[in-house]
C-alpha cells in the first residue's frame, strides 16, 4: 500500500525517497496506556548518487505524463493504524498521525511499508 501526504503530488506522479522515517504502532500504549500511541523514528537518508540517477531515469520514463518529487517518505508498520486509515473495527487512536508527521518533518510526501527498512 502507499499514499500521498502532499497536495502537490498528482495522480501519476512518482515520489523518489531522499530519506525515510518509520512510524510504528506502540502496543504498550494500547495495552497499558504507557508512552506514545505511535513512535516516529529519525529518518535515514538514501544514497545521494543513486537517488539522483533514479530520479533522472524516472523523469525520462514519465515522458511528460506526470513528474517526480524528491523528499521524505514515512514507512509504516501496518496497513491501517499507522497509515491513518480510520475504521470502527480497530482501536487505533490515529486521528493525529498526519499532523504528528507534518509537525516533526517539513514536508513528508508519501507513506508505504518498505523504504525505511531498505535504507536501514
Note the main attributes of this structure.
single chain, 120 residues, alpha/beta, 6 strands, 28% helix
- The whole-angstrom Rg is 15 Å
Number of helices: 4
Uncertain segments: none
> Could you tell me the mean pLDDT?
92
- The rough form would be described as elongated
First-last Cα distance: 20 Å
Strand content: 25-35%
User: Strand pairing plus helix content: what structural class?
Assistant: alpha/beta
Strand element count: 6
Helix content: 25-40%
Which sequence of SSEs, written as H and E, runs from N to C? Answer: EEHEEHEHEH
Can you summarize the main beta sheet? 6 strands, mixed
Assembly classification: single chain
Topology (SSEs and partners):
Elements: E1 3-4, E2 14-25, H1 27-32, E3 38-40, E4 44-45, H2 48-62, E5 68-76, H3 97-104, E6 108-112, H4 115-119
Parallel strand pairs: 2-5, 5-6
Antiparallel strand pairs: 1-6, 2-3, 2-4
Describe the structure.
This protein has 120 residues and is an alpha/beta fold. Helix content is 28%, strand content 28%. The protein has 4 helices and 6 strands, in the order E-E-H-E-E-H-E-H-E-H. It has helices at 27-32, 48-62, 97-104, 115-119; strands at residues 3-4, 14-25, 38-40, 44-45, 68-76, 108-112. Strands 1, 2, 3, 4, 5 and 6 form a 6-stranded mixed beta sheet that branches. The longest helix is centred in the middle third of the chain and has 15 residues, at 48-62. The mean pLDDT is 92.
